[in-house]
Design brief:
Distance between the termini: 11 Å
Shape: globular
CATH class: Mainly Alpha
CATH topology: Hydantoin permease
Oligomer: single chain
Number of strands: 2
Radius of gyration: 23 Å
Largest sheet: 2 strands, antiparallel
Amino acid sequence: MAQHNTEATAQKRGGIETRSIDYVPENERHGKVSHQGPFWFLGNFQFFTIAIGFIGPSMGLSLGYTALAGALGILFGTLFMAFHASQGAELGLPQMVQSRAQFGYRGVVLVLIGTLFTFVGFNVVDTVLVASGLHGIFGWNETSITLVIAIISTLLAIYGHDWLHRIFQLCFVISLPLYIILTLAIFMGGAGGKAPAVALGFNLVAFAAQFAASASYNITYAPYVSDYSRYLPRHTKPSSIITAVFFGASSSAIWLIALGAWLATHLGASDGLVALHDSGNAVMHGFGSAVALTSVAALVATMGLNAYSGMLTVVTAIDALRKVTLGKGIRIVTIVLLAIIWVGISLSISGDAIGILFAVLTVMLYLLVPWTAVNLVDYFFVRRGKYAITHFFTPNGIYGAWGAKGITAYLIGFVVTIPFFVLPGVYTGPAAAALGGVDLAWLVGLIVSSLTYFALSRSIDLDAEIPVIEQSEKDLKKLQQVDHTSEESAVPAGASL
C-alpha cells in the first residue's frame, strides 16, 4: 500500500497512472468538473465526426435534413452518455466494473464483448480514416502512418487518465479557433464549393439512418464516459457533471456533422480529412493543412481514449474469470496487445471507409443500447445510486457471479431487435423491410430492455442491501485511513481494492 501511495504521488507529478479497474479513494480524487466539458467537446471535435455528416447526403438527404437528423440523433445519444458520467464520481470506478451490479461479477463478460468490439472498432476505423486521408493530402505511406499513430495513441493510453485530460485540453485550445475561422468562411462563401448538381431532399430511410448513426456515435461513449469522471470528488453534484458532459459532447458533434453535410453536398467530399484540407486552403493557402493536421492530432488523442478504456474492459473481463494483480503492469501489457490487434485489422482493410464507418457504428448501437438501458434503469430507478462498492470485487458478494436479471433483460432486448436490423449489403430484418428499410432496431432494444429489467428488478430486496452498503462504506473509510497511515509511516498494509 505504501508503494501504491508513492506511485500515486508520482502520477500526480506527471508519471504513468497507477490504477486500472480498482476503486479510486477520495484522497486521490483530483479531477475538476470544469475539465469535463472541454474534454468531451474535443472527443468529438475531429474529422471522424465530419464523416458522419456524409451518410445522409450519400443516401440522397439534403444538407438541412442531414444537419437536423444529425442534431436530433446526437442529442438523443448524448442524453444516455451524460447520465452515465455521474456514476464515475459517485462510485470511483470504471463504468464496466459498475455493471457487475446488473450482470454479476462473471456475467458482465457478456457485455464486455460488445464494448471491446466498440473500442477496437473505433480505433480500426480511425486508423483507416487517418491513413487514407493523409495519403490523399500529402502522399504519405499509409502503413507508416498507421504505425506512427498507433505508437502515439498507445503511449497516451499507457500514461493514462491525467495525460489524456492534458492532451485533450491542449488540442481543444488549438482546434477551436481554426474551426471557427473555417465555419465563418463557409457562411461568407470563402471556402469554395458549389450547390449540388443533383437535387437532394428528404427520404425517411436516409433520415432514420443519419439519426441512428449520430445517436450511436455518442451512445458508444456510454460504456466509458465514467472512466474519465471517476477522479472527481465523490460528492460532486451529479447535475453539474451531466450538464458539462452533455453540452460538451453534443455541441461539437452537432457542429461538425453539419459541417460534414456541407462538405459532402457542396464539395462532393467522401474523405473528411481531404475535404477539410481543400476547404481550408480555399480560405488561405496552408490553412487547410493546419486544420487537417490539428484534426488528426485530436483523433489520435481520441484513439488513446479508446485504447485506455479498451484496456479497462479487457482487465475487467480477465479479472472476472481469474483474479489478477491490478496496477500499471497489466495496464501496459493489455494496451500494447490491443494496439497490435487494431493495427493488424487496419492494415488488412481496404475499400469504402464511409461504408465501414456506417456499418461499425450500426453494430455498436445494436450491441450497446440494451446494456445502457439496463445500466441506467438500475442506477437511477432501482438502486438509485446506492451500491456496496467493495462487493464489485468479489463473485461472492450481494451482486453474485451471474446477474440473471441483467443478462436476461440484455439478451431479450438484443434478440427482439434482430428482425429490425438494417445492415446494408449484409442483412435487413423482416420487420425493417416491412417498414421500408427504416432502422428502428435501437429504439426497440432500448424500450424492451428497459421495461424487462425494471419488471425483473421488482424482486430485488433493496432493504437487505442497505446494511451491506453501510458496511462497505465503513470498509472503504478504514482502507483510506490505513492508506493514509501507511503513506506516512511506510508500514505495509492489506491489499487494496
